[in-house]
């Protein structure tokens, strides 16, 4: 995310990704140290701390503890 991002702008970006049929999107919020995960056909997930960010099934084997993104 960028400091200038707005909720409306993020919603528009997510909608654009859905229209483009992007199956997995991560929005990384450095200030909140949180990752919002958007997957086709699923409710958004909000991960922080020791939660594990996974690229499955689109990026097999990719697993990253969220806290590592902010070290």
Write the layout of secondary structure elements.
Layout: H1 7-19, E1 24-29, E2 34-39, E3 45-48, E4 52-54, E5 63-65
Antiparallel strand pairs: 1-2, 2-3, 4-5
Notable traits:
two-stranded antiparallel sheet, 5 strands, three-stranded antiparallel sheet, alpha+beta, 71 residues, 1 helix, single chain, 18% helix
Structural commentary:
This protein has one helix at 7-19, and strands at residues 24-29, 34-39, 45-48, 52-54, 63-65. The protein is of the alpha+beta class. Strand 4 (52-54) and strand 5 (63-65) form a beta hairpin. 1% of the residues are buried.
Estimate percent helicity.
Answer: 10-25%
Show unreliable segments: none
Distance between the termini: 17 Å
Rg over alpha carbons: 12 Å
For the biggest sheet, the summary is: 3 strands, antiparallel
Number of strands: 5
The proportion of residues in beta strands is 25-35%
Main structural class: alpha+beta
Mean pLDDT: 89
Order of helices and strands: HEEEEE
Helix run count: 1
Strand order of the largest sheet: 1-2-3
- How would the global form be characterised? flat
């Amino acid at each position: 995310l960028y400091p200038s991002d707005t909720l409306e702008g993020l919603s528009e970006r997510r909608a654009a990704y859905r229209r483009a049929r992007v199956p997995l999107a991560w929005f990384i919020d450095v200030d909140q140290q949180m990752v919002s995960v958007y997957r086709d056909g699923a409710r958004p997930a909000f991960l922080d701390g020791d939660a594990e960010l996974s690229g499955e099934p689109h990026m097999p084997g990719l697993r990253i503890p969220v806290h590592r993104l902010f070290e």
